[in-house]
């Protein structure tokens, strides 16, 4: 009989202006609304996502925590209590060259209405600190659209450097890595 996988709960992270927490079913309407705004989805899916697809994304994230002990957090703005995006680490087992391997992959996306406020930097800092402790300073990677210069600047601010250009799902992509930390 296989050994059961532990059921991990999502830790809550707090920054000066944000709560990073597990998803709630009440996040779905805001998530669907964000995926109708071209500025939000242009570097992700290139098209709007249906409620069904958004729900599947939220459910997949919950499962990621249960199976891997890490995943995406919902980003909540403290001042308003609004769900404004997602951030975290994943293991998507992507079929990509060069392969990502076992390196946790960081990603983030925030409501276009919040861009320019420093929320992404604040959230990445909190998640990166958690990741350094959880992954014991291991190498992490991120995959992004080469045209997403704002996210690229944030990634570079946290030590990510380009190591490959590739194609993923017939679209150009850039792979960045943050080398393992001694510790």
TrEMBL record:
It comes from the Bacteria. Gene3D superfamilies: 3.40.630.30. InterPro entries: Acyl_CoA_acyltransferase (IPR016181), GNAT_dom (IPR000182), N-acetyltransferase (IPR051531). Pfam families: Acetyltransf_3. Coiled coil: none annotated. Residues 18-181 form the N-acetyltransferase domain. PROSITE patterns: GNAT (PS51186). PANTHER family: GNAT FAMILY, PUTATIVE (AFU_ORTHOLOGUE AFUA_3G00765)-RELATED-RELATED (PTHR43792), N-ACETYLTRANSFERASE DOMAIN-CONTAINING PROTEIN (PTHR43792:SF16). This is GNAT family N-acetyltransferase. The lineage of its organism: Bacteria, Pseudomonadati, Bacteroidota, Cytophagia, Cytophagales.
